[in-house]
Amino acid sequence: MRHVLLFLLLPCAALSFLFRDRVIGCDEGQDVVYYDQHAKMFKVSRHSFGNCGFDSIGRLCRAHYADTAYGVSLNRTWEIDGAPRHLYECQDFVRAEVPFIPDGSWSDSIIVDNSSCLTRADLLTAAQYECTRPIRDISFGGQCGDTPTFIEAVFVCDAPPLDFYRSDRHELPYFHERQFQTLRTYTYYHQQLKKARKLWDVQEVERLEKIMSETLDEAGDVYVQMAHYINTTGRHDNDTDIFRNNELRSRRRLLNTLKWSLSYSGFYRSQLLVTIASNLLVGSEEGVERILQLHKDSLRCDEVELINMVTRGSPFPEVRPMMTNLYVDYCKNHTLGVGREHLDFLSETDAVDTLLAMYRKIFRSGVINAEYLPKEDDVAAQRGMLFGLVAAVVLITWVTICRKPSKKEQVLPTWNQHVQYSMNSLASS
User: Fold this and answer.
1) Could you read off the pLDDT of 83-122 as tens digits, one per residue?
2) Which segments cross the bilayer (predicted)?
3) How many helices (H) and strands (E) does the chain have?
4) For residue 166, what is the enclosing H or E element?
5) Of 32, 163, 251, 320, which residue has the fewest beta carbons closer than 10 angstroms?
């Protein structure tokens, strides 16, 4: 019995040993397969590069397994779906050393994505194209076996940073000034209108409603202009021919793409906050609960599906926590009715509930409480209200009127420090 059990266990043991790492199965004329460690089975690859040569196997490895650079033959075949496949084990991607980055310089990492390994000369050309001038320093990583080719270059550049999209710069002070003026105008006439209604002063009510209507038109104009501005700035400065074919990925460009995309996530979050505020102003708890049931995750700043989606399978996993922190800071500057000094809790998992409790104080039925509003002399806080306040003026005014009242040491930086340099250059460019 013991011998029978041992015989039955041998195939499993062989599989366990054989597939301890990442494996590609390839044979001419057959579908390429890869071993799925989660499903514990081979699956057909959607990638095919025409043959089972060294270059093709390396590309397949990088397509299916994060942090791999190339593949080596295991010198054995395995029958999969009735056909033999030669097996190749994918090898680790050894990252490049990070050069020293002096003050005033910036760095980036460019990684081969879905193409062949590149020579030092090819990667140097790509780095200089990105830097726009001869680079200060460069190192190479992810050597492809014994060949003089690589999949990564980390370089240091002394040129001024590229004109990456920055929402805080493109959101011109002109818009901020108009929106705050509109908010103050709305708040003042909103209170005057309430008093006139209490006094049954029909003539004054009509006069104030006309002013409020004009304020609504002004707010709508600002809102439309801002939406158009967001849609027409950003990407046109961020593409270069070398990256359009997806052969190379740049950490700096990934950060930039995420930052540009997160402005839309932030815009949607602001719209949700506006809707919550308008429901609270008219005493509609049902409306608030409906929003929370359907869109609560979109109100979070500590966990953003867009970041998870874009960084999933990325050769730059270190970008995810950096972008999450950036988005939390963005949320602090773009939360309707609340100054950033009151929003340190936004990185917590229960932040939406905490914010809702504050909103119940700020937007009580028929009243706007200024307790948590940013200080008027706080310019940074004023910039933080870009999306939400203008939208709030539009929606809340509509509801109110139309509804009847009822360093210095020269040491090599770590990878996280390297990414922080990239983030700092994005934030300051």
Assistant:
1) 899 999 999 999 999 999 999 899 999 999 778 999 999 9
2) 384-402
3) 15, 11
4) none
5) 163
Element (H, E) at 363: none
Which helix (H) or strand (E) segment holds residue 248: the answer is strand 248-250
Residue 261 is encoded by which pair of tokens?
């995309």
pTM above 0.90, yes or no: no
Please count the other Cβ atoms lying within 10 Å of the Cβ belonging to residue 163.
12
Q: Report the alpha-carbon distance of residue 423 to residue 413 in Å, rounded.
A: 14
> Per the structure block, which two tokens stand in for 215?
């304020």
* Residues 6+ away with beta carbon under 8 Å from 403: 282
263 and 233 Cβ atoms separated by less than 8 Å? no
DSSP E strands, 49-151: 68-80, 83-92, 106-112, 118-119, 137-141, 149-150
Mention every residue, 6+ apart, whose C-beta is less than 8 A from residue 98.
Answer: 107, 139, 154, 412, 413, 414, 415, 417, 418
Type and span of the H or E element at 261: helix 251-281
Tokens of 306: 């867009």
Buried b (16+ CB within 10 A) or exposed e, 245-272: eeebbbbbbbbbbbbbbbbebbbebbbb
